[in-house]
C-alpha cells in the first residue's frame, strides 16, 4: 500500500491579508517552513524502536533490519551500512512515515498546520518570523528526539507559492488553487521531446501509442489542478 500524505488543516490567521486557511484540499499561508531530514543519517536503532510499535512479527522485524543493514557498494567496494535507509523502493517512504510519526504528533501538539509525505514536509504559518521560529524548533526536535540532521540545502522558509510539494505548487491569490510546479512541467516536456525523438522514422500511430502512457499518467496525477496548461516542447 502506498503511503498517503499526512495533512493537518490550516486555520485562518487573523489580521493577515494572505492568512492561512484550508479550503477544498488546498492549503495557503503567509509562509511555509520546510524542514527536510537527511535520509542518509537515519539511526537504525531509533527507527526500529518505532517500527516495533507497529510490527509485532519477529520475522518481519528481522527482515527489515537486514534490509537496513544491506551492504552499500561504492567504487566497486561493498561496505556495511550502519546508518541511513536504502532509497528507491516502496519500503523507504513507509519507513519514513513510521519514523516521522513522532514529528506529526509534535506538530499536532503545537497546533500547527502541515502536510507531510515521507520525509517531505511543509508547515504553514502566518508570517516569515513564525516560519523561522518553527524551523528552528522542528530542527531541534528532529536532532534531539529522532537523531536526524536537517538538510539545510533543501530546507527553507518562504511563501507557499514559491515552493513546490510533491510536484505541486499553488497560486498567490487569497483563495489559492493548486498548480503544477514549473520543474514538473519541464520534466514532462522533456519526456515528450524524448518520446518524439525516439518515434522519428515511425508512423504517427506508433508515436501516439508511445505518448499515450506518458500523457495518461500526467493527467491522472495532475488532473485535480483543472484544465491542462499548454506546454512548449520545442522541436
Task: Please give the structural blueprint.
Blueprint: E1 6-8, E2 21-23, E3 26-28, E4 31-34, H1 44-54, H2 58-68, E5 72-74, E6 77-79, H3 91-99, H4 101-109, E7 113-117, E8 120-125, H5 128-145, E9 156-158, E10 168-170, E11 178-180, H6 182-198, H7 204-222
Antiparallel strand pairs: 1-7, 2-3, 4-8, 4-9, 5-6, 7-8, 10-11
Helix pairs in contact: 1-2, 6-7
Biggest sheet architecture: 5 strands, antiparallel
In one word, what is the shape?
globular
Average pLDDT figure: 76
Secondary-structure element series? EEEEHHEEHHEEHEEEHH
Cross-sheet strand order for the largest sheet: 1-7-8-4-9
Helix content: 40-55%
Radius of gyration (CA) equals 21 Å
Counted by DSSP, the helix tally is: 7
Count of beta strands = 11
- Provide the β-strand percentage band: 15-25%
- Distance between the amino and carboxyl termini: 39 Å
Uncertain runs: 9-30
Structure description:
With 235 residues, the chain is α+β, with helices and mostly antiparallel strands. Helices cover 40% and strands 17% of the residues. It is built from seven helices and eleven strands. A five-stranded antiparallel β-sheet has the order 1-7-8-4-9. Strands 2-3 form a two-stranded antiparallel sheet. It has a two-stranded antiparallel ribbon with strand order 5-6. A hairpin with a 7-residue loop joins strand 10 and strand 11. It is globular, with a radius of gyration of 21 Å. The chain starts with 5 loop residues before the first strand and ends in a 13-residue tail after the last helix.
Amino acid at each position: 500500500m502506498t503511503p498517503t500524505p499526512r495533512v493537518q488543516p490550516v486555520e485562518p490567521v487573523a489580521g493577515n491579508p494572505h492568512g492561512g486557511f484550508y479550503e477544498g484540499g488546498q492549503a495557503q499561508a503567509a509562509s511555509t517552513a520546510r524542514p527536510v531530514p537527511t535520509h542518509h543519517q537515519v539511526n537504525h536503532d531509533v527507527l526500529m524502536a518505532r517500527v516495533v510499535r507497529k510490527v509485532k512479527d519477529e520475522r518481519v522485524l528481522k527482515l527489515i533490519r537486514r534490509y537496513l543493514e544491506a551492504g552499500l557498494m561504492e567504487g566497486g567496494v561493498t561496505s556495511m551500512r550502519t546508518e541511513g535507509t536504502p532509497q528507491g523502493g516502496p519500503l523507504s517512504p513507509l519507513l519514513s512515515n513510521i519514523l516521522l510519526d513522532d514529528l506529526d504528533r509534535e506538530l499536532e501538539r503545537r497546533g500547527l498546520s502541515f502536510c507531510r509525505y515521507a520525509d517531505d514536509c511543509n508547515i504553514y504559518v502566518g508570517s516569515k518570523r513564525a516560519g523561522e521560529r518553527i524551523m528552528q524548533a522542528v530542527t531541534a526536535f528532529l536532532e534531539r528526539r529522532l537523531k536526524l540532521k536537517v538538510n539545510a540545502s533543501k530546507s527553507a522558509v518562504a511563501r507557499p507559492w514559491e515552493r513546490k510539494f510533491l510536484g505541486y505548487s499553488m497560486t498567490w491569490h487569497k483563495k489559492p488553487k493548486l498548480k503544477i510546479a514549473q520543474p514538473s512541467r519541464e520534466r514532462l516536456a522533456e519526456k515528450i521531446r524524448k518520446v518524439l525523438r525516439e518515434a522519428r522514422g515511425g508512423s504517427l500511430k506508433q508515436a501516439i501509442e508511445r505518448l499515450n502512457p506518458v500523457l495518461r499518467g500526467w493527467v491522472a496525477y495532475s488532473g485535480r489542478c483543472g484544465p491542462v496548461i499548454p506546454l512548449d516542447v520545442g522541436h
